[in-house]
Amino acid sequence: MPHAPRVLTQLRAIYTQLSGKEQQIADYILEHANEVIHFSITELADQCQCADATVFRLCRRLGFRGYQAFKIALASEVTNPKQTIHQEINLDDDDVSAIAEKIFTANIETIRDTQQIINKDELIKIVSCLENASRIEFYGSGGSAVIAQDAYHKFMRTGIPCLYHSDAHYQVMAAALQVAKEAGAKTIGITSYGKSPLVCLADMCLYTTSRETVFRTEALSSRLAQLSLIDLLYVAVSLRRQDDTIANIQQIREAISLKRL
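Given the sequence above, the corresponding structure tokens read:
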């Protein structure tokens, strides 16, 4: 059987597609999941200052027949946090093997969840956009800078002219998103935060999922999901530009071989 996305994962994934009132409910659920499992539909609606029907509609959008089915699924995620693969690392009790188990399992789950929330229509649009681009520029700030650099390192093999900017000042000078859009450029975002300004400015977006704990900051597992999305885009574009990509890879290998002499 396919792995079913967790409730909170799915809620984050569809967040930007929700109405204002539905986002209000989603925000409350994400912040108070442990309390929500004890609420009736009316109590949750009262907390969010909305109608019962709005809560019910959100449950249906998540794929549940009703509020009760939603609440049962949510309870299975939050009632036993010690069993969740995203559990906190305990300095006193966890030896290195236990830490390894938690880290690897969490990363695997993050990548699997990210795979399941990919919007395939959006993915096709992004691949087509990259395939036909006259130039691709990669930007990343903070921990995402290395993701942008990895994307540049891969896409330079496709034969499409590429640029990578890590310094914030260069990023602003080269192309602030709003300026780039006004100039006719297409902007693509990869983020795990549905409320990010990036989502509002970008023409197309792909999302990753992860959960944050004290020791496992969101950047740890989400960056692996982001790298996986970059790999996906690179391979898809390369397959559409096989001749150019193969020729460029061969040139790069020949150039690198000279360094090995």
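DSSP finds 14 helices and four strands in the chain. Try to locate this feature in the token string yourself.
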